[in-house]
Amino acid sequence: MPRTSPLDGLRFAFGTLTVFPVRVTRWDREAARGGMLCAPLTGLAIGAAAAAVGLVLLFLGAGGPLAAVATVAVPAALTRGLHLDGLADTADGLGSGKPAEDALRIMKQSDIGPFGVITLVLALLAQVAALAQAYDASWARGACAAVVSATVARLALTLAARAGVPAARPEGLGAAVAGVVPVRGALLAGVAVTGAAAAVAAVFGPYDVARTALAVLLSLAAAEALLRHCTRRFGGITGDVFGGLAETAATTALVVLSLG
């Protein structure tokens, strides 16, 4: 097997987690490891694109709410809505109360049930409301919130792909990336993203440094709680669970950043 280069990991990350025209040249455990370690970089790119669209609307005279809607729409478009779909499917699977095998079958169905619809609507409303508040405070705070939330959402995927977390199915994206990231690598990624987010927030003052770091940590804690619950209920993780983790982390980050 040829040696994995950093570019293989980047291609895997952007080719599987975004719609950017990147060709995945390798689909194996080594490439998946690099790809999941690079997942926060895809979030950084998506968040920057989302913030750019929101800022353009603000500068054209749109208000904070409209800019917030656009900012939420961009990540959905750049991921083909896969994370939102995963959130809805995960909610349906958990809400069904059925055994793991039946719950996984419900999650694979193309339709969305009542639990999925309710969860999806509430998550999107929370994201838009939090971003609107951030934009109303200042365009810079809104842009920062968009970038931080998108990045921490993908960081949650890095942590979920750590060694020791099993796959619920033998096929699919969940099986391809489950357990590929060494625990040490996942922790280092978490420290790096938290430190970078806090450093960026330093332009707003010491309070924002603490609040941003707390937002990252609480986002990861919320995603970890969901991960553990899904692992107990389904026997492991799936691609849908990864999507649910990303949206949970993003929503938590935005809510925490809107407080205080």
Global outline: globular
Low-confidence stretches: none
Overall mean confidence score, pLDDT: 93
Element string (H = helix, E = strand): HHHHHHHHHHHH
Approximately how much helix is present in the residues? over 70%
Structural class: mainly alpha
Percentage of residues in strands: under 5%
Count of DSSP-assigned helices: 12
Largest sheet: none
The N- to C-terminal Cα distance equals: 52 Å
Number of strands: 0
Radius of gyration: 18 Å
Cofactor: Mg(2+)
Keywords: Cell membrane, Cobalamin biosynthesis, Magnesium, Membrane, Transferase, Transmembrane, Transmembrane helix
Pathway: Cofactor biosynthesis; adenosylcobalamin biosynthesis; adenosylcobalamin from cob(II)yrinate a,c-diamide: step 7/7
Family: Belongs to the CobS family.
Task: Tell me about this structure.
It is a multi-pass membrane protein. The protein is mainly α. 77% of the residues lie in helices and 0% in strands. It has twelve helices and no strands. Helix 7 runs parallel beside helix 12, helix 8 runs parallel beside helix 11 and helix 11 runs antiparallel to helix 12. The N and C termini lie far apart (52 Å). The mean pLDDT is 93.
